[in-house]
What does this fold into?
Amino acid sequence: MKGRIRKREQDPWITSRVRILQWIGLGLFILLLGRLYWLQVVKYEYFKTLSENNRIRIRVVQAPRGVILDRRGRPIAETQGSFDLIATPVDVEDLAGELRLLSEVVEFDPEEIPGKISMAKKANPYRSITVARDLRFEQVSVIEFNREALPGFSIMIEAKRSYPFGAEFAHVLGYVGEASEQELAAAQAERLAMGDIVGKYGLEKTRGDVLRGVNGGRQVEVDAAGRDKRLVDDVPPRTGGTIQTTIDADMQKVAHEAMEKRAGAVIAMNPKTGELLVFVSAPAFDPNNFSRGIRKDEWAALVTDPRKPLQNKGLQGTYAPGSTVKPFLALTGLEEGVQDPKATVHCGGSFQLGNRTFRCWKEKGHGTVDMYRAIVQSCDVYFYTLGLKLDPDRVSSLERGAGLGVLTRVDLPGEKSGLVPDTAWKREVMKDRWYSYESVLLGIGQGAIHVTPLGMLSAYASIATGGEVMRPRLVSRLVRMDGTVEEFPSERERKLPWKTENVAFIRRALAGVVNDYGTGGAARLPGIEVGGKTGTAQLVTVKGKMVKSEQLRYEIRDHAWFAGFAPVADPEICVVAMIEHGGHGGSAAAPVVRAVMQEYFRLKQVAGKGGGM
It folds into this structure.
């Protein structure tokens, strides 16, 4: 049929390709819709956070640590404002270049800071960290003037630990610093974060749970260069709790000055309560240097100083006690009924045991002395013979009961016990028997015996109280962040079964040491009867003619001790001073004790109280 239109036949192959393309297009469209749903709905919060982080920065505000007070309520550790340099890792564009510029103005460790910022960037690049603390005003001015060249770095006012008395309370308070990697790993329950300040030593460490506050934070809107533009939100920090100590700041200052840059320790305590009134270890360090971030050269100087300023010599230093143990030998003799106090010994300047000669400190001897005169004049020969006469186990038992060679359980970290040897120790540790010459040496506080100044204080306080051993304590009261108050009453460790008349005799003899032409005359106070005992602990034996300690090299000079209490009739204060390589206890240590006691009674008179401080 001539005019009929023929239908075009479709190519099956082309049709199938079109359908495939249609399905592919539909699939891509469905994928696009799914992806949009994933981004806009499922991952909404995530991308919202990323968007916010592009303009919002979190500035952590360090919580001020709680205040530490002396016994009269005066701050001995507090918090002040500090200009600190902070860095927000995500905003730092040229770390090496910016640190190079900053190093011209600010002192920091060029090896430590880059690693610190890199670590912070991995943990949370939007969280600011502190790079340098306690900047001077002129440093702040230069940094602010050059802000355009220092993206990611800014100045923030933060809380800085401050110690108004400097080095005077160093070994009581300790110091603070940034939490180390080990501390961060070990304190997850405390929710420590990089840059948080923690106690490293002393009360700052042991009472860190009370002193640490709760950090605050600021949400700040920044521009493209990371500069603060607007405060979005502000959560104020919460200040830590308060600690009140038993230490008296005035007495502490006097004791610190009395040491006159010498090495050693001086500690004072109320023997009836165990309250520590003074605790000085010398030389010390300024904890304020740690608050701002101690430099490597400063730290190196501290750790390499042969006088060990970082060591708390009052409870970590152990020394031969010298003649300060003689009253305990005498008391053992009285308690055991071994020695009649009226029995005499002739001192000609030396004592012979077999082929060994033991000299008295007085070259020509003391003549004939009884127990009272032997204590007053510190006659070595008398105590050589008494030490040989006594059972060493009885001596060590009485001395340990009084507080020598044992832990006092003071509320400060790192206390050492020292050692009061006996026959069991010699047999188990030294794998040998006890020899007679060891008993001779034990009589004058030489040989294996070594004790801490705090242990010596506890022992003399037990004589002052007639056998009551009180636990030394430094903290009297805590007020936590939530307002709860915790009081710390006196704790009696034990009551020693000493006979009243025997203790009275020893106290009378100790009063004679100071007031009856004895070796401790330098501790005498007008109107106050002071009792005590000198000690000169020999470090080396010099053969031949006797040599004065002052003539020896400093490193081998004798250690000087004085331990005493006052008033003898009813002791209110007990003080121990130990001067490393100080020579004679009577000339070096006794004046230190006298200065502390004098300040105690001056303050008591000013306060107008009849029962002590």
